[in-house]
Amino acid sequence: MARQGPSKREAIVEAAKALLWERGYEATSPRDVLARSGAGQGSLYHHFPGKREVAAAALAEMAAEEIGAVDALFGAPAPPLARVRAYLTREREALRGCRLARLANEAAMEEPALRAPVAAYVGRIQAALRGCLEEARAAGTLAATVEPGSLAALLIAAVEGGYVLARVHWDPGAMRAALDGAVQVLDAVSRPEGAAPPSRPPAPARGSASGSGPA
Amino acid sequence: MARQGPSKREAIVEAAKALLWERGYEATSPRDVLARSGAGQGSLYHHFPGKREVAAAALAEMAAEEIGAVDALFGAPAPPLARVRAYLTREREALRGCRLARLANEAAMEEPALRAPVAAYVGRIQAALRGCLEEARAAGTLAATVEPGSLAALLIAAVEGGYVLARVHWDPGAMRAALDGAVQVLDAVSRPEGAAPPSRPPAPARGSASGSGPA
DNA sequence: GTCTATAGAACGATAGAC
DNA sequence: GTCTATCGTTCTATAGAC
After folding, report:
1. Taking the model in full, what pTM does it have?
2. Total structural domains in chain B?
3. What is the mean pLDDT of chain A?
4. CATH code of the domain in which B92 resides
5. Which of A25, A213, B22, B69 has the fewest CB neighbours in a 10 Å radius?
6. Residue A102's closest chain B neighbor by CA?
7. Cα angle, residue B101 at apex, residues B190 and B94 outer, rounded to 5°
8. Which residues constitute the signal peptide according to the record (chains A, B) (predicted)?
9. Any CB–CB contact under 8 A between A82 and chain B?
10. In chain A, which residues from 51 to 70 place their CB closer than 7 Å to nucleic acid strand D?
């Protein structure tokens, strides 16, 4: 059940992966998939019950690929905040949108089988970011003002929102600006890495949230 | 050419507004619009060349409405950073997605007539945020570590990305977490408003970033 | 396992009566 | 200006030969 040449099934899933990124779920028809894959009608419905299951298989593969890439990035031997910066400044094709989260606003997201791989992907990134930020906090390189979990949520939102801005303005620079802001803000709440670990608390300065806002 | 009772044209545009938010552009058919509006086929094609122009009219109205709302919010008589916080913590129906930017990943965004209202909406918000942040900077309540323009881009991206996260995790809390991070970060780079304007540099306390970051 | 042929419904748009 | 009727195409899916 494994050793086989490149079957039509694989060709169909590959085509679906490309088309889901290019056009999304609703705008991709089984005919499009077949045309690009070179397979006939019957092959698709032999291997899959229907369009939804093809998309689910394609999304699962895409999520696995992208999760592998981000795991490699976050597994790099660098200080935690450097890994966060590396993720934020990673090269991206802003106008193409996020390969997985571009489906966020389609009705397909109400189907668990389609939403799950997308959620797993962004969830994994957010968890990795949070891990780095907690590590930095423990090392004393992240200010105590900001909760690592909240900052991680902000950063993944900045990336996904950056894609949205780029598409809406049809300008990759719109995404760059947002991620620029993210890096600046990250720098503003951090201290140089590689410095001596803080045996004493972060100094009297630096308002914990209780002292800064009107709240 | 104005004084008329509620025409079918208006009913069609109203229906399109609702459906574009609910389902997006591709997934909304002229028949759906007609069914919801109570109009017949001919009415739509009498008033508009086709589906695209109906959507353009609907998006223009939606953008005007939403821009009016955000202008009211940002025009409120409050300190600049309070206005920014008010925008960030505004009530939102996270799972419905952004009324306009939900279309970001549709092929329709490649058509200027459809992209323009969406871009105008997010552009207006970003400009308002930037204005507030520049004002705060001038008043000395915003740290010099962060450029107002970059921070504004980050914040609008956080909101739009927050919608994406909520949809992808099917959990409004995902958006709340991102915006929580945004507020925390904003507090971290700001000093209390209402305090005396800074005739001297930000004081050693209350991190203006000079005391806190590597910058 | 792969193919061609085709079904039944919905798509965006048009025709033409009133 | 509004309506019903219908066009030709594409949609997702099935049938059935090879």
Report:
1. 0.91
2. 1
3. 91
4. 1.10.357.10
5. B69
6. B105
7. 70
8. none
9. no
10. 51-52
